[in-house]
Amino acid sequence: TKEIEVRSVSINNYAGRLKCFYEQWVTICDNPIVLDWLQGYKLPFIKIPVQPRAPHARAFQVSEGEQIKMEIDNLLDIGAIKSCEFCSGQFVSSIFLADKPNGKKRFILNLKQLNKFIKTCHFKMEDTRTAIRLFQKRDCAATIDLKDAYYLLPIHKDHRKFLRLEFSGVLYEFTCLPFG
């Protein structure tokens, strides 16, 4: 068995933190693709995205604007986004709020336009009914809530310019894999 060093990482600023554990990953994984992702995920483009013009800044109701500001402040606090300056070749996506089943709102980065430039692999998302059919007598199971798991994977610095949004006149970019 190999010893693995335990490292402490700030809980407050955890976006992209898998890169902090690269040396440990090397001891348990020899997959060059996974190890490359840990150093900064590169979006799998079919071709480099071109955006003739950024989406129009949407006018939000006061309550929506306040909630979006809270979400952006949270993303800044955890290091998932940072403010940035305009650069050539950037891609800015729109943002909005969507209803959640519990009546609250979910912050959405609308990557619909960017996704047109991304290679996709078809997969079927299984549900609990499929999992239950796989169980045999005396099997045990557990669940793990991977809340915000996307945020753990860092985005390569050269690809952050494709994951941008604008709010209240400020341009931001994701430093980690966003939902969308």
UniProtKB/TrEMBL annotation:
SUPFAM superfamilies: DNA/RNA polymerases. It comes from the Eukaryota. GO terms for biological process: DNA biosynthetic process. Residues 79-180 form the Reverse transcriptase domain. Signal peptide: none annotated. This is Reverse transcriptase domain-containing protein. It comes from Anoplophora glabripennis (Asian longhorn beetle).
